[in-house]
Amino acid sequence: MFSSFKNKTVIVTGGSKGIGKGIARVFANHGANVAVVARNLEAAEACAAQLNGENGKVAAFSADVQDRVSMKAMAIEVNEKFGSIDVLCANAGIFPSASLEDMTNEDWDKVMNTNAKGTFHAVQACIPYLKQAEYGRIVITSSITGPVTGYPGWSHYAASKAAQLGFMRTAALELAGEHITVNAVLPGNVLTEGLEGLGDDYLKEMASAIPMKKLGTVEDIGHAALFLATKEAGFITGQSIIVDGGQILPEN
């Protein structure tokens, strides 16, 4: 049995939908105070209202991971509301498609600024509070795309996700003396709201690439993040866990 998350505060960036919402739900179900952070406050509030019917205390906050000042202000607000920041789930990310031939500098910069620089901003904003925690945990949502695999149209996304892991390893070294761990979860094909509207045939094709013959759930990613955030996982840092139902295992 893992230690309780009661009175622990968890920030989830990009927490209003998709994987972020799944992460927020898992922590809320385990009794944590959860800060759902999104650029759109209404979306964050709707998510918080839904999750507050579960076990945790959930509140909504508006912030843009691309903006360092915005993230620092958010961390101050979360700490003032809940009294601590114990876990950061740096989950916010975007994945627009663009071929190498057509990709613009603006396309590249938007993805890198959100996924890679956004992770840096979120971590930096939370460090002062994580240092004060009984033990601090940072869990980054990366991807199998970039660190392990490639996908046409996602060269900027893949670069940003690989960058997150390079950042993670050095951040883990710098923060180890503060009893703060830094790890990452690498999802494979996961069923989110954005995929549900693409039709059964598309979803079946995605699932067929997975040895378990099913898509992952957002809660599958949430449970991996939960484990890395436990007290018992305190000797694990600078590591990544692939959560993909075996998707990367076949040779072809």
Care to describe what's here?
Belongs to the short-chain dehydrogenases/reductases (SDR) family. Residues 8-188 form the Ketoreductase domain. GO terms for molecular function: oxidoreductase activity, acting on the CH-OH group of donors, NAD or NADP as acceptor. The protein is of the alpha/beta class. It has one domain: Rossmann fold (3-Layer(aba) Sandwich), CATH 3.40.50.720. The chain contains eight helices and seven strands; from the N terminus they run βαβαβαβαβαβαααβ. It has helices at 18-29, 41-51, 68-82, 105-132, 155-175, 193-196, 200-208, 218-229; strands at 9-13, 33-38, 57-62, 87-90, 136-141, 180-187, 240-243. The chain has a seven-stranded parallel beta sheet, with helices on both faces. The N and C termini lie far apart (39 Å).
Short description:
By secondary structure, the protein is α/β, with parallel strands linked by helices. 44% of the residues lie in helices and 15% in strands.
Features:
Rossmann fold; SDR_fam; 7-stranded parallel sheet; 252 residues; 7 strands; alpha/beta; 8 helices; oxidoreductase; oxidoreductase activity, acting on the CH-OH group of donors, NAD or NADP as acceptor
